[in-house]
Amino acid sequence: MVTYIYCSCSSASLLFKKLNSSIIYSNMKFFDNNPIGRIINRLSSDVLTTDDELPWFVNNTLLNLAYCLGFPFGVTIYFPWIGIIIVIGVLIMYYILTLYRPSNREMKRLSSVNDGKLLSILGEVNLLFYYLRFVKDYK
Question: Hey, how many other C-beta atoms are within 10 angstroms of the C-beta on 19?
């Protein structure tokens, strides 16, 4: 358990440092092309994934990997012919995974773009109200 907590904290810290350094040392063209709302939304989404979801996913992945490798290995020891069925099942699952992964990536990208546009519009409206108050107070 201590190793799990240490690994999750150190990975979160390392990824956060790399994320900040890549944003700080970006070209100005990057900031000109991307609204600040989209950048903030993407950063908050990445940090949330790193801090909250990644350690849980790693723990579940290791647990399921032990189940997925241990159970078929044990069954294959007693019934060697069932290894053919297991190999066919793994190949079918791999094919389904190759179809799922690109579509899931595209859905996440579209979600991030739409959320960034909303935050950008809200930021610009807030700035507009600030300027309107300034002009009203000036008159």
Answer: 15
Band (pLDDT 50/70/90 cuts) for residue 45 is: confident
Coil, strand, or helix at residue 130? helix
Alpha carbons 24 and 20: distance in angstroms, whole number: 6
Nearest to 5 by CA among 51, 46, 66: 51
Q: How many structural domains does the chain have?
A: 1
Average pLDDT taken over every residue of the chain: 80
Q: Residue 40: give the domain boundaries.
A: 2-138
Token readout for 37 is 């709302």
Which of 2-11, 27-36, 66-75, 81-90 comes out lowest in average pLDDT? 2-11
Of the candidates 51, 66, 53, the one whose C-alpha atom is nearest the C-alpha of residue 10 is 51
